[in-house]
Amino acid sequence: MHPFLVVLEKNLPFGAENADTKFAFGFLNSTDLPEIRRIQPGKNVDETRARLTTGKLCFGARDGSRLVGILWCDLDEFNFPPHRRALAKDEAYFFDAYVDPEYRGRHLAPSMRIRCCDALTKMGRTVFWSYTDFFNLPARRFKRTLGAKDVALRLHVDLFGRFSKTWTLRRYSPGES
Length: 177
Hints:
alpha+beta
């Protein structure tokens, strides 16, 4: 059983002007693959390359020339399997964010997310989605501080690959969550 929250990250409470200016931010490409692999050593290189070649965007944060954080974006679909759906032209889905352990606790993750939202807004994307494991309280607090709202509580059950089903347990009203 896997309970998770569908999260709407629209209308972040502050923009890039409040983000940390120590770091340089921007979208990465296939030439950055070795650095992306360095920062996420457990990831399969073919899967990472496939993400880039199939149109997924990788937004990065650098300290000088060193890549210290990444955030993946999908502009085509909310690609979390229990909640997979096509996205509208103004939507983006955030997934698989990672910050170098040496840089954790320096507010890099919020700065990176804010800058990514600003960059995507310039591309016409104004609605940002993600999911959070229900029991991951640090992730829930992090998203709440950025003004994100829980939209739905869902439960996914998979029994040995023979039965798979996802139920919506609760929908949250705009002021709730």
